[in-house]
Specification:
With 387 residues, the protein is of the alpha/beta class. It folds into two domains: 232 residues, Periplasmic binding protein-like II (D-Maltodextrin-Binding Protein, domain 2); 93 residues, Periplasmic binding protein-like II (D-Maltodextrin-Binding Protein, domain 2). Helix content is 30%, strand content 20%. The protein has twelve helices and 16 strands. It has a five-stranded mixed β-sheet with strand order 4-1-5-12-6. Strand 8, helix 6 and strand 9 form a beta-alpha-beta unit. Helix 9 crosses helix 12. The C terminus is likely disordered.
Length: 387
Amino acid sequence: MKILAPILALLFFTQAILAQEIDDGDKLLNRPAERNYDVILESGYLKVGGVYQNFPPYSYQVDGEPKGIDVELGRRIAREMGVEFKVHWIVPDENLGDDLRNNVWKGHYLAKRRLADVMLRVPYDKTYAYMQDSTGEYINEQVVLFGPYQQETWQIAFDPARLDSVETVAVFQYHPIGVEIDTLPDFYLTSAFAGRMREKVRHYGNVAEAFGAMRSGEVSAVMGGMRAEIDHELSKPENAQFKAASNGFPGIGKQVWDVGMAIKHTHRQLGYALEAIVDRLVRSGEMNELMSGQQLRYSVPGYYRDFLDQASLARAEGVISEKGSPSASFLFGGVLLPSDEKTCSPPGGQLLVLVSARRIVPEAGKVPGSLKRRQENRKQETWRAQP
């Protein structure tokens, strides 16, 4: 019965999701529809995936209405294409490859007709895109990763009543810190510095619960999965007394990464159209406006930093308007924040594999304490811990 219960729950949950979404697959052959660019325009709607269930501030529901940054971005893209926005909710699987297979190019075995036209919140990483297996075959040949629209990083929030500042994570050898259980920050805090912070780590179901613990005095700080998660909580009136830290994360590997989109490899024309829309949103500063409108900081993807000049970067991050005049500064939690605040990856940091989020699973056959590989279940990366 213990084995059947989660299987039945998954079947029920899948049916509940399918009941909310349009079924345009081939019922006779039990396979998804081949929705290329022309078919999408003719159908009058765009199915946007990458919107994960209960993942604020990126994607979540309020009274049954989809909300979040990725939801709003999906709506903006659909409007630019002149079609209706349709949400394609995703439940995270074991790794990113599974999510791409289930939602972009093949379909889940429990719902073979259910595919998104495009998937958002996919790490834009060429190493992963061209990763090969032991036979030399490309692992991700069925999908195309493209169109970076945001840069993410890790973030800590702290209580100034308990800590004067957080210049280094080493302070959490002496002060309790909250973290969402089974995420990369969880494994980082319990293993970095030879495990010296382990005894001060407190686990919670999600970032919101960890902030509740900080309000009650159980912990002095909270480490979120990503910066926008912390910003989302800091924007709430009940968390106004807390501040965002400015420390780095030595040993975590890559500390900033670009987030983009994914489509099926046969739908290149759709990809070109989507990339043109997102490129304009980034360059014009509309992507920054979309995030700052929800009191979230925005950083231009590193992809654009390779070729945009300083004036163009300033426009994209909202420092100057389209007309070239200075724009309003972003006031966050009573503090004037720079539009681009990030740290550098430590020497030797190495990306190993991208996996699916909410949980971290140690490499098969390895002792978890060694953490040769970290797997984070929110579409981030798995990193090698540094000495």
